[in-house]
Amino acid sequence: MLQGWVIVLASFLYLGVLFAIAWYADRRADLGRSLIANPVVYALSLGVYCTTWTFYGSVGRAAASGIGFLPIYLGPTLLFALAGFILHKMIRVAKTNRITSIADFVASRYGKSQVLGGLVTVIAVVGVVPYIALQLKAVSNSFSILASYPDIVMPATAGAVPLFYDSALYVAMILAAFTILFGTRHLDATERHEGMVAAIAVESVVKLVAFLAVGVFVVWGMHDGVADIFAQAAAVPDVARRLATADSPAAYGTWGTLIFLSMFASLLLPRQFQIAVVENVDESHLRRAVWMFPLYLFLINLFVLPVALAGMLHFPAGTVDADTFVLTLPMAHQQEALTLLVYIGGLSAATGMVIVETIALSTMVCNDLVMPLLLRLPMLGLAARADLSGLLLEIRRWAIAVILGLGYLYFRVAGEAYALVSIGLISFAAVAQFAPAVIGGLFWKGGTRDGALTGLAAGFVVWAYTLLLPSFAKSGWLPDGFIAHGLFGIELLRPQHLFGLTGLDEITHCLVWSLLANLGTYIGVSLQRVPNVREARQATLFVGGAEAAGTPGWRSTAGVADLLPLAGRFLGLARAKEAFARHAQQRGLKGIHELPADARLVGFAEALLAGAIGSASARVMVASVVKEEPLGLDEVMNILDEASQVRAYTRELEQKSKELTRATAELREANARLRELDRMKDDFISTVTHELRTPLTSIRAFSEMLQEDPKIDLAQRSRFVGIIVSETVRLSRLINQILDLAKLESGRAEWTVAAVDVAEVIREAAESLTVLFAEKHVTLEFAGCEPGLTVLADRDRLMQVLVNLLSNALKFVPAGTGRVTVDAGGTASEVRVSVVDNGPGIQAQDREVIFDKFHQGATTSDVLTDKPQGTGLGLPISRQIIEYFNGRLWAESTPGAGARFVFTLPRQAGDNGAIPQGDSVPAGGRGYKEESPGGNS
Amino acid sequence: MSHRILIVDDEPNIVISLEYLMKKEGFEVAVATDGEAALQQASTFVPDLILLDIMMPKKSGFEVCQALRADPALAAVKIIMLTAKGRETEVTKGLALGADAYITKPFSTKDLVAQIKSLLA
User: Fold this and answer.
1) Nearest CA of chain A to the CA of B29: how many Å?
2) pTM of the predicted structure, to 2 decimals
3) If you measure CA to CA, which chain B residue comes closest to A862?
């Protein structure tokens, strides 16, 4: 009655029940009444460790090597019983950091490195594919054997069966479809699958019950208890040998290796990590699991040895594969129901493993391999796409299909060369490569990304060379020459005797070399440099435990407006909103809109995204919104750069400041000069005022006296009136001279420039003063005043100079004996005129002062006592005129021996350029004193 | 006995007018045309009042005033500063040096006579 359709129907019924359980558990989870929040469920779900390898393979292993099957279970038992703290720490760290997979864990630990996550994913996929192949092989074999019931026929080798008649292909396809239905119905922020866990727990019960049922049947149905079986076995020498512990020294080494391997496998296999760490609801559940899971392992192995011995006793050697004893023994006794139960048990062992493993792997492939690549391809524009949750699910579905496809491929390629257990051990050895990075990362802060990368890569390469490639070679898919003679014929490179290491089984051999390379480079490279800021922060989070994980590590903030759409793109907007609302509630806020834009919110959003796309990708995505990276070495360098830019800017500022100071000093100087000019102008005005008031004083005094006293005698009266008149004349002259000087100094004077004969002008000036000279009885003489001393000048101005000099001389010479001489001569280039007197002379210190306006200093008093005749402006005006025509005017004197006033003017013939061309040369902005009129300044 | 007035100025015409004016008022008059002569005259002539110009050769009116005030024998002599420089600082400086009055040129003869009489009263 066990026709093919019954088996298929039973299979689908079983899968349907599983699906229903999962659906129900998911519903309960959504309602907040979790089915799996229970330590027993957690412990049972850990039973996913026991796959068809355990269900069928343990008996096969026991048939081959007695209790040699046990180390695979002793490892996890020891781990849970003795090293639960490692698992506890992993769970705590993973929860704090929202770790979604083993790849995410490693990537996150070493600074959220996408490269590292990708490498771990690749190793996991490559390493686990043989393991999946193992499940396919077991299910398809059990199906084939069952299909030929009641005959017991060993299935043909996979390669001998045409592809479309290969039940393993259909098993793979059905498992893929079922896994996709199970694991990728929706995207969850926490990457937790309550329904799946519930189903896995049920499967653990099913396979345990099935195996125990076979055991009970074999021990008490077929025999009279355990003692009976062992007694019978002891009687057969070939079988009795299996009861020995180990038959060679190498076997002891193998024991150690397998305990060691399985210890890591139960922790680091993607599905183990998924169930034990990611799906853990409450870390307190671990306390129950540390004894319940070993108990489960004990129970499921309880009847392995009896069943193996019974099978060996029952079937003639070589006729039936020991891996199938669990199925074939009930078949041989026509126990149809038990046979079907065993088949279902095997199916549950396979489906449990495949579902959890492929979901875990697909998450890793999606989060740590595909998404980082896709997000980096700008042409896809994914970074800008509004909703990526659909794409994420799509990627995961394809990942599941591809992984199962690879498993099937490996099954077709290499499946027949190995027993179930050997295939599984290849996977264990691959996964063991994670140990240094994971365990080291949990307890050693010095590990760096580079160390983890090189360690993993080195271990993976050695693993592939010493274990994976030989498995292909033994299956005939690769030339096996390199196994016997080494790569390129080099003996030292023989994959299974690397560097001449012999005497070990292939797994131990692989493990020694791969972990040596792995651990060595991990530590060696890590020690090359101090962890950078990001690595150090993650190291603190992981090594220091969750308690140390205080700050989310974001130095900047972003608001809900930025973060919610971002999360929505990966989770779907509705789910993202729910999560944000929960976060707001946890912080005691009324709603999403009240969430402040702070680092905590950014940290929350990153953790939320990490659940969906992995921590490394989440960091990149959040960073794109926050536009603020956690402080890394690069950023520190940038900050230093900025600081140096600030310094440069400061230098620039200082420069500007100096320039400003300089400008201020210049301004101050200019201001002081202006003030000086102002003061000089004030002084000038004050002096002018004084000079004007002096004649006015006399005029007023005499006028008032005449007015008040009409009876003043006539002589007095005419004397007074005479004084008034002369003072009025003085006043007029003064005013005229002041105006004249002002005109000269301001450049507004009008000049009539022409060729002038100097001698002629001298004579004319002398003539105008003849009367005055005669009155004072002063002699006026001329020397060398020849015609032809021609200069370019204003004739009237030149006359003014000469009159001034002559009247000055007349003023100072004594009456009667006075003598004034005018001497005119010249060189080829200039005309030189001097007026010499025999007066008192000029003190040396006064020779320049007398050219100042109103030179009224006490020291000059004895040359200018005759006030009414001098305004104090004659000499300054004369100098202005002479200098205007590019000449010079100065005084020479020996005190007591008279004075000599000399002026020179360029001769017209000898000077062409320096004389102003125009008749009138107005020029604005002249100062009162500094600038001499004319163009030779 | 009539009061004695010393006129100190380097402007001949102003000296002439002041001399005439003072004599007409019945004062005994002496004249000095520079600062040094003024100090000399002050000790020999011993005036009751000095009409002192500021801008003078040899010694300015300020210097003369200072020297007179430093001589206890001449402490009682009244000094009227006469100057064409009418700026505030000059006035303050003259009064600070011990001048009794300060009259700006050109002055009103009536005011000058009234000022002299009030100082001598």
Assistant:
1) 17
2) 0.55
3) B57
Q: How many helices (H) and strands (E) does chain A have?
A: 37, 7
**Domain A747-906: CATH class, spelled out:** alpha beta
Q: How many domains does chain B have?
A: 1
Identify the residue among B17, B87, B108 best suited for mutation to test binding to A, counting A beta carbons within 10 A and taking the highest: B17
Q: Do B108 and A702 touch (CB under 8 A)?
A: no
CA of A901 to nearest chain B CA: how many angstroms apart? Answer: 23
CA–CA gap between residue A264 and residue A279 (Å, rounded):
19
Condensed to tens digits (0 to 9), the pLDDT of residues A778-835 reads 988 888 877 778 888 888 888 889 998 998 888 888 888 888 999 888 887 888 898 9
pLDDT digits (tens, 9 = 90+) for A730-757: 888 888 888 888 888 887 878 888 888 8
Instruction: With beta carbons under 8 A apart, name residues in chain B contacting A701.
Output: 14, 17-18, 21, 106-107, 109
Whole-Å CA distances, A357 to A170, A362, A403, A886 = 19, 8, 10, 110
CATH architecture of A634-727: Orthogonal Bundle (1.10)
Tell me whether residues B84 and A697 touch, CB distance under 8 A. yes
Q: Chain A: give the shortest CA distance to residue B10, in Å.
A: 8
Residues in contact with A426: Cβ distance below 8 Å, sequence separation at least 6, in sequence order: A127, A130, A131, A418, A467, A468, A471, A507
Residue A161 class from Cβ within 10 Å (0-12 exposed, 13-18 middle, 19+ buried)?
A: middle
Dihedral, CA of residue A926, residue A927, residue A929 and residue A933, to nearest 10: -10
Grouping H, G, I as helix, E, B as strand and the rest as coil, residue A679 is helix
Structure tokens given for A114: 């996408």
Contacting residues of A for B24, CB less than 8 Å apart: 705, 709
pLDDT digits (tens, 9 = 90+) for A404-460: 888 888 887 765 655 556 677 788 888 888 888 888 888 887 888 888 889 989 999
Higher-pLDDT residue of A626, A102: A102
Taking an 8 Å Cβ-Cβ cutoff, which residues of chain A contact chain B? 686, 689-691, 693-702, 704-705, 708-709, 716, 720, 723, 726-727, 856, 858, 861-862, 865, 867-868
Provide, rounded to the nearest whole percent, the portion of chain A with pLDDT above 70. 80
Tally the C-alpha atoms within 13 A of residue A116's C-alpha that lie toward its C-beta: 31
Superfamily the domain A4-432 falls into: Sodium/glucose cotransporter (1.20.1730.10)
Asked if the Cβ–Cβ distance from A701 to B106 is below 8 Å, we say: yes
Structural domain boundaries of chain A?
4-432, 434-550, 551-629, 634-727, 747-906
